[in-house]
Structures are given as C-alpha cells and as structure tokens.
C-alpha cells in the first residue's frame, strides 16, 4: 500500500516561490524613427517633423554656412511650395545672405520684413504691384537676430505660415551650429598656420630679415596687401616702422603720439578702421612717404613675454573680394604678435651675443701676436697661416717661455674656428686620476666627490681647439685614453655609458724632447705620431736677439696702458743691455721684466739703471758656470757666444759687428779664426763673392 504524498501548506509554497521564482518571458515592442505613426500618414505635422529632421541632419554634414544654405534652400523651397527663397539680414539695410530661385515680383517687401522682426512672428503678404505674388517673412529667432527667411510664390497661403515658422526657427539653430563649427575650424586653421609661421622665425639670423619675414607672413595670414611692425623707442618718443616698404632705407621714424599707431601704443587697445581716409585718427604721412594708399587697416598692440608693450603690429588693405578686418583677424594678429615679439627679443639677444663674441674674438686676436722680424719668426708666421685653415694636429716644441700657447692661439684665431672656444689644459698639473675627469667629464655619483654632472674640456672645446700643454708630462695611462679619443673622435664621461661625438682640433705642446721619451718608452710612439702630423719648433729668444727690442717695446706699450701712464721710451744703453742678456726664461722672462718696468720705473724713460736691479751681471753669463771648465776655456766660449750674438743683432753685417766690438774688420776675422769659429771662413767666402 503506497503512502499518500505529503501535503504542502500555503505558507511553505510561498517560501518556495520566493526561493525559486518561476521565470517569465517579457514582451518588448520596438519603434524606430522612420516608423513613427506620424510618418505613416501624409499630414502637415509629419511634413514639419521631416523638414526639421532634414535641417538638423544637413547641419551635421556641412562645414560652411554657404555650403549648408546652397544644399538646403532648394529643399526648403520645395517643402514650402514656393518659387523663390532667400535668407536676408538687416545691417541696418537689408542684405542678401543666400538666394535660390527667381523672384518674379516687381518690388521687395521691406515693410513686411521689418514688421516680422519687430513682432518676432512670421507674416504673409501680397506683393503691392503683382496681385498673384505672395511673400512669407519668418524671423530666425534669437540665435540669429536680424535675420529673416523670406519666400515668395504664387500659391502661398496662410496655411504655409506654420511650416515657415518651424522651418525658420529650426534653420536658425541649425545655421548657428554650422557657423560655430565653421568659425572653430577657421580658428584652428589659423592657429596651426600661426604656429607654423612662428616656427619659421627661427630661421632669421638678424633683426632686419626677421622683421621682413614677420611682415610677409602676417600679410599672408590676414589676406591683406601690406603689414608693418612699429617698434616703440620710448627714450626718444618715437616709433620705428620696420619694414617700411617704399621708403629709403626701409625704415621710417614717426612721433609716438601720432595716428592710429600712436593711439594703440598709448592705449594698449586694438583699433580697426574700415575707411582710413575718413577716420580723423589716421595719419596719411606714411602713405605719402611710401606711395601706398591705405583703404582699411587693423592695428594691435605688440607685447613681449613679460606683457610689456613694445610697439604695434599693423596690417593694411584686406584683399579685394574680402570683407573688412573683423574680430577673428584681430585675435589672429595679436597671437602672431606674441610670437613675433618673442622672436624679436631672441634675435636681438642673439645679435648682441654675436657682437660680444666678435668683439672678444677680435680682442683675443689683437693680444695674440707673434712679434719679431727674425727669419725664424717670419718662417713661423708663414707656416701658421698655412696650417690655420686646416684641422691637422700640430705638435709645438720649444723651451719653456718661448710662446707655445701664443702659437697655438694663433693657429686657432687665424682659422675658421676663430669664433669657437679655445680651451687650454696643462697636462703637467693633472694626476692620472684627475686627467680622465678633467678631459672627458664625469656623471653625478661617478666617484665620492662627484656631487653633480660635469662636462670635460673636450666638450667645452666642441667646435673649437683644445690645447694640451706639457703633453710630455702626461702619464702612460692618460696617453692611452687620449689616443683612443683622437682615433675614435668620441668620448665617454666617467661613470657614464653614452658615447658623445666630438669635433675638436687638438694642438699639443711640450718642452721635453719627445723623440727621446719615445725611445726611452716614456711616451707612446703611436700617440707621438698621431700628435706630430705637423711639428713646429720655436727658437729660444737668445737665438733671435734682433727680436728682443721689438718684443720689449710691444710689452712695454701694453703694460704702460694697464698702468695708466704714458708709454715709456728706452735709452740706447737700455736697449743694448736687453740685447746682451741671455734670457734663460725666454719671452716670458722679457714680458715679466717689461711689466715690472712699466709699473716701477720712476722716470719717463727707461735707463740702463732701471734694468740693473733685475738684470744682474751674474745672470748674464753665457757659459754654464756649473760646468767644470778652465778659465781659458770659459773665456773662449764666452767670446764665441758674444761675437755670434753681435753678428745676429746687426743682421750679419760684419763691418757693423766689428764696429760694435771696437775692432777693425780684418782683426775681427782674425779673432774668429783664433777662436775656431766656423763663421769666420763662411763670412770670408761671402765677402770674396
């Protein structure tokens, strides 16, 4: 016997339904725009909705108001069953914005259009002269105040008024959307053009060419015939027109309180003039100077980055077929003016820097002069002239004080790198640990004391010349690093990984005999050949006694200027005393001597006594007193050297030499023979010739 199924109470059933609800199928109805019941039957309401839909749809597709009206007015004329359709605006006279069809009436319904605007309502009226022709005038509303949709035809009735009211209102909103889009597109286009123009300003390297470029681009941007920038010279209360086309010198100066430019400068406000010669503010003197006739113009204040007014920016004569200058033109010209003012400031600063650089370069050139008339110095000057225009590495050899750095500067300032840096490094003052950082630079944190990034001498000399003095004292490790840079023409800062290309001419100098150092393995042979593509050997001052007085007078003039005193003259005895000295310190010693004389000499003339406390007789010995020589040998060497120096001093004239030495010429030859001087036989042969 089966058991009956357990019964479920009502309360339990409700709980089950809440826990496990039964799904139900929902019915959804869909309706798209084109299936509206309104569109299923032909009536006026449906027609109006469709007309408004078309007006708005067309507004999303056209980019200019002219294109929009050209596309839609024919459809509107068809919808309103009219033969003629136009959009007009009161300014205060009625002007046609766009027209479609043919107006067969004999007159224009001025009163009807005026009343439609006054009432803000559409009106229907018959033509006064043609009984079968009617007009409907419907204002476009607040979005286009003063604008009326005017239609005309033979079959127009009061029933068409409602359609015209809706069409005009929707047209007003749609047209405003198109015009705003057109304005924004035009604005974006002008901004892009302004930015493009501004980027071209960097190509101008001087103020005059920049001003001409600005004027040309402003004329193109504002579709005008001419433009000018007026720079305000407040000190002289003038404005300078640049460029002033048609004026001699291309520049015109005017009082800063005259004309429209004067008003803009003093008020700081933009001025637009539609008819220049009927405006009392217009100054026709500029036209008279240039032969140009101004019809209309736009003038805006010109301000710098700090907002300070520095002049005015003016464009003249909107090109034929274009409307007068408007607010968009003013805004565009003001924006271009900001870029122009910035470019002008930058260019002026660049010109000032260029002038300062040229002046400094010229001053450096004047200071770097190789003084002398000896054959060795003439040959040296000639060689420098030939080498200056090249990038060949040069090794300068010579004793300390012979002017190795002056020669290296001459190579720099006489060549195409004259306006670029000249950087000198004393290699003897750098330890191997400092050398790499000094020459190549280092990154922040590269070593304990590297608190910031520092560029090295090679980067400082970029484009110019790096002078490595006392190269013979550089360590072998430093030589290897230098050789790598010279071969690869790239450097890497200490602690960095970036390879930095360099364009530097290297000139090295030393007072050591590098050939001997190479042989003794103290200087790398490969670096020696890399540096010594061309070698210049500087003669010591004792071998060019004819240059001593020239150098002394040059230094004396220079230091007298620094001491703010008249240039001192040297007595004949003082000159002889200078020439008799051996100058173990070479040109540097002579320079230091003249500096002290210029500041310490008590009289207006340099006498031999003024040199005595500096040039003591004990320092003038030709013979090295440390040598183990007998008195006879020392005397012989002294006489040889003294005769040689005298011969050089008088330019090889033996008669003059004998006179200076207090001897007869034949006795001089005899003495030179006794001293075993080779010059005696050479001079005799020349005399025989």
CATH architecture assignment name of the largest domain: 3-Layer(aba) Sandwich
Number of E-type strands: 22
State the helix count: 24
Q: Order of strands across the widest beta sheet?
A: 8-7-6-11-10-9
Question: Could you name the ranges where pLDDT drops below 50 across 5 or more consecutive residues?
Answer: 616-627
Oligomeric category: single chain
CATH class of the largest domain: Alpha Beta
Termini gap = 167 Å
How is the biggest beta sheet arranged?
6 strands, antiparallel
CATH superfamily of the largest domain: P-loop containing nucleotide triphosphate hydrolases
State the CATH topology of the largest domain.
Answer: Rossmann fold
Domains counted in the coordinates: how many? 5
Average pLDDT rating: 82
What is the 3D form? elongated
Which structural class best describes the helix and strand composition?
Answer: alpha+beta
């Amino acid at each position: 016997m089966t058991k009956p199924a357990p019964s479920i109470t009502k309360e339990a059933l409700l709980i089950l339904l809440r826990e496990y609800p039964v799904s139900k199928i929902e019915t959804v109805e869909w309706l798209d725009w084109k299936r509206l019941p309104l569109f299923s039957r032909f009536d006026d309401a449906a027609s109006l909705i469709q007309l408004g839909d078309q007006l708005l749809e067309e507004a999303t597709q056209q980019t200019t108001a002219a294109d929009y009206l050209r596309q839609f007015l024919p459809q509107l004329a068809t919808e309103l069953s009219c033969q003629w359709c136009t959009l007009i605006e009161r300014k205060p006279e009625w002007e046609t914005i766009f027209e479609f069809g043919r107006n067969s009436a004999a007159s224009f319904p001025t009163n009807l259009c005026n009343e439609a605007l006054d009432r803000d309502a559409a009106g229907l009226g018959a033509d006064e002269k043609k009984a079968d022709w009617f007009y409907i005038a419907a204002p476009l509303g607040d979005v286009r105040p003063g604008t009326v949709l005017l239609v005309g035809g033979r079959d127009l009735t009061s029933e068409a008024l409602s359609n015209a009211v809706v069409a005009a209102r929707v047209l007003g909103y749609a047209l405003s959307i198109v015009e705003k889009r057109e304005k924004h597109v035009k604005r974006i286009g002008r901004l892009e053009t302004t930015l493009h123009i501004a980027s071209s300003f960097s190509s101008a390297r001087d103020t005059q060419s920049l001003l001409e470029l600005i004027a040309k681009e402003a004329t193109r941007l504002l579709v005008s015939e001419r433009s000018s920038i007026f720079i305000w010279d407040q000190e002289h209360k003038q404005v300078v027109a640049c460029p002033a086309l048609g004026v001699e010198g291309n520049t015109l100066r005017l009082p800063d309180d005259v004309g429209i430019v004067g008003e803009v400068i003093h008020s700081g406000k933009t001025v637009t003039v539609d008819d220049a010669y009927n405006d009392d503010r217009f100054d026709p003197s500029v036209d008279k100077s240039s032969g140009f006739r101004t019809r209309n113009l736009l003038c805006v204040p010109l301000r710098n980055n700090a907002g300070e007014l520095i002049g005015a920016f003016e464009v003249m004569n909107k090109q034929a077929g274009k409307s007068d200058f408007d607010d968009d033109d003013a805004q565009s010209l003001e924006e271009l003016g900001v870029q122009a003012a910035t470019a002008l400031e930058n260019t002026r600063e660049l010109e000032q820097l260029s002038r300062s650089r040229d002046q400094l370069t010229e001053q450096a050139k004047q200071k770097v002069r190789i003084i002398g008339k000896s054959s060795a110095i003439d040959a040296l000057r000639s060689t420098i002239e030939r080498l200056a225009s090249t990038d060949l590495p040069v090794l300068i050899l010579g004793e300390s004080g012979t002017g190795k750095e002056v020669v290296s500067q001459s190579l720099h300032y006489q060549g195409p790198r004259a306006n670029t840096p000249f950087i000198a490094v004393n290699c003897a003052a750098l330890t191997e640990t400092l050398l790499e950082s000094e020459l190549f630079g280092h990154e922040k944190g590269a070593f304990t004391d590297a608190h910031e990034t520092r560029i090295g001498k090679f980067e400082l000399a970029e484009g110019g010349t790096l002078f490595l003095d006392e190269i013979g004292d550089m360590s072998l490790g430093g030589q290897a690093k230098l050789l790598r840079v010279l071969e690869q023409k790239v450097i890497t800062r200490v602690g960095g990984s970036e390879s930095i290309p360099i364009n530097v001419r290297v000139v090295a100098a030393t007072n050591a005999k590098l050939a001997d150092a190479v042989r003794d393995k103290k200087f790398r042979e490969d670096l020696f050949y890399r540096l010594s593509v061309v070698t210049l050997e500087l003669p010591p001052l004792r071998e060019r006694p004819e240059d001593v007085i020239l150098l002394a007078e040059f230094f004396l003039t220079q230091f007298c200027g620094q001491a703010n005193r008249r240039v001192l003259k040297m007595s004949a005895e003082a000159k002889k005393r200078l020439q008799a000295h051996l100058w173990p310190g070479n040109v540097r010693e002579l320079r230091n001597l003249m500096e002290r004389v210029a500041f310490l000499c008590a009289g207006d003339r340099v006498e031999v006594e003024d040199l005595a406390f500096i040039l003591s007789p004990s320092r003038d010995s030709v013979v090295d007193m440390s040598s183990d020589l007998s008195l006879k040998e020392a005397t012989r060497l002294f006489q040889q050297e003294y005769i040689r120096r005298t011969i050089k001093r008088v330019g090889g004239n033996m008669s003059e030499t004998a006179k200076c030495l207090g001897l007869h010429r034949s006795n001089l030859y005899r003495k030179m023979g006794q001293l075993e001087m080779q010059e005696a036989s050479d001079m005799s042969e020349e005399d025989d010739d």
